[in-house]
Amino acid sequence: MASLSDLSEELGEIEGQISDIFRALSNGFQKLEKIKDSNRQSRQLEELTGKMRECKRLIKEFDREVKDLEYKSDAGTTKMLNEKKQSMIKELNSYVALKKQYASNIENKRIDLFEGPGEGFAEENGLLASNMSNQQLMDQGNRMMDETDQVIERSKKVVHETVNVGTETAAALKAQTEQMSRIVNELDSIHFSLKKATQMVKELGRQVATDRCIMALLFLIVAGVVAIIVVKLVNPHNKDIRDIPGLAPPAPSRRLLGYPN
Q: Residue limits of the T-SNARE coiled-coil homology domain (predicted)?
């Protein structure tokens, strides 16, 4: 009989994937039998359930490929493919039934864990109470009340300590906030002082420039006056040079009577 890969490459690949999943399911359920913890069993069962969903999807793909090949396959091949599909479905259903069985067992264990011990404990307490005298019951009640009071006191102490820690934390945060506010104010003052100093430097620069211009102008005036004085002294008869106000003109040379020039 020809293999599925000879009939269709897709069918051969799907069959291989389904076979791998069936092996993984078989190994998974064998491993599940050895697990005692219900939580681990639940996780293992969820993993196996995911594999079964994947196997169901692959079987549907297998069925579609079989239907596509019906028109070009003979009756014997078609029958073989349908039997193969039914075999896969039957094996998958066996694992689904096994999964339901384990899920039911795990649920029953959880019910025993949550209900069994509580009921036994209540029954045991009832038996103990029926065997105790009135005085013993009162002593037991007082002891339980004392224990409850101690628990309450410890709780109040914890709450008080928590409140103190919260108060100290709030005070520390407030101090830090005030310190940050002072730092910000100091930074603002420094910024203002730097701004004023920059303005003063600019004003001083302008004043120095003005003073330099005035000194240069005075120097030019003085130099001009000195130059005029020098020229006037050197050439006193030069009519092109006007007399300097406040400066007396040079005295004319005097002639002696009776003497020719």
A: 142-204
